[in-house]
Amino acid sequence: MIKYVIKRILLMLMVFMIIISMCFVLVKLLPDKPPEQFGKDMELIKMRRELLGYNKPLIQQYFIFVQKSLLGGDWGVSETLYIGSDVWGKFMEKMPATVVVNVYTMIFSVPLGLMFGIYAALKKNKWQDHFISTAVMIFVSVPSYVYAFLVQYFLCFKLKWFPFQMKAGYDYLSWDTFVSLVPAILSLGFGTIAGLTRYVRAELTEVLTSDFLLLARTKGLSRTQTTVRHALRNAMVPIFPMILGEFIGIMGGSLIIEGIFGIPGVGPLYTAAVQTTPPDYNFFLLLTAFYTLIGLSSGIIVDLSYGFIDPRIRMGSKK
Predict the structure, then answer these.
(1) What percent of the chain has pLDDT over 70?
(2) N or C: which end of the chain has fewer CB within 10 A?
(3) Which tens digits make up the pLDDT trace of 116-151?
(4) How many domains does the chain have?
């Protein structure tokens, strides 16, 4: 198990370095904005550029980038969005908004996904199952930003239940802020609920048709007892890792939603860093590293959690 964990982490780091290296080279092939155009921030940006090796050959710049940025946490200063501001500081300032909206989404979507999936499995091949399965296929197929426009139109514009944009300020745990986040939570949550419902239904349906459940019924246990004591416990082994991966992976999916609902998180920061002229290269590299790490981490956490949740599973075993 330990060898497998080390192997997966090393492979993840290798893929991460390949992606970041490609992005670094492509960014450095683009023209830089001359420091003289930054006015009062010219000296600061010149100094930070020298620390990151802007005046040296590309290969030396790359090793300086790995040493100072990836390992040392010095990602330079913003040259377009927040001229002269520390990139890492701005990133950490906007991270709480992204975390809050994703935590709220998981609290909303996970219980509903489990409930609908269990109900569909118990009503297999009945009209309730067909209805839920059809709805799941529709919700899985539609991108989250389409839900965002529908939620804004019906709940914000027509019914006027919620504001169009998140409430300004940094009091993310207040009730008013939560109410203003509900449209974004719904937009992110629909797809998560649908995906979790489909997965739970498939796993629980397979467990409910297993021979050991038939044996439990013949020994006198009721259907409710066999479902709660045996079926759900066995079905949750593959389901729980998916929930962990969904929690991490959903942060990448909120990139567009944050911009639509005015959430001051890292999502709008990423799109703005790319859209500005010229692009804010330091922000782009930091946020690319962040979202790449999220995508890779969600996969590895799902795989590794199987072995910790169910001791019978031996990851990487040849037998």
Answers:
(1) 84
(2) C
(3) 988 888 888 888 888 988 988 888 888 888 888 888
(4) 2
Structural contact between residues 78 and 277, judged by C-beta atoms closer than 8 angstroms: no
The structure tokens listed for 66 are: 């790995």
Do residue 17 and residue 131 come from a single domain?
no
Can you tell me whether residue 133 is helix, strand or coil?
A: helix
In a domain, 315, yes or no: no
Output the pLDDT for position 310.
59
Q: Which residues are 77's β-sheet partners? A: 86
Please state, as a whole number, how many other Cβ atoms lie within 10 Å of the Cβ of residue 269.
28
Buried b (16+ CB within 10 A) or exposed e, 4-30: ebeebeeeeeeebeebbeebbeebeee
Asked whether residue 52 falls in the same domain as residue 99, the answer is no
Q: 312 to each of 179, 231, 238, 302, how far by Cα in Å?
A: 44, 17, 13, 16
Question: Which residues 6+ apart lie within 8 Å of 262 measured at CB?
Answer: 164, 165, 166
Find residue 86's DSSP bridge partners.
77
DSSP 244-309: HHHHHHHHHHHHHHHHHTT--SHHHHHHHHHHSSS--HHHHHHHHHHHHHHHHHHHHHHHHHHHHH
Range of the domain at 23: 2-71
The dihedrals phi and psi of 43, each to the nearest 5 degrees, come to -65, -40
Give pLDDT tens digits for 243-276: 766 666 666 657 788 888 888 888 888 878 887 7
Token couple for 142? 């539609």
Instruction: Strands of the chain (E only): list them.
Output: none
| Together in a domain, 254 and 191 | yes
What confidence score (pLDDT) does residue 314 get?
Answer: 57
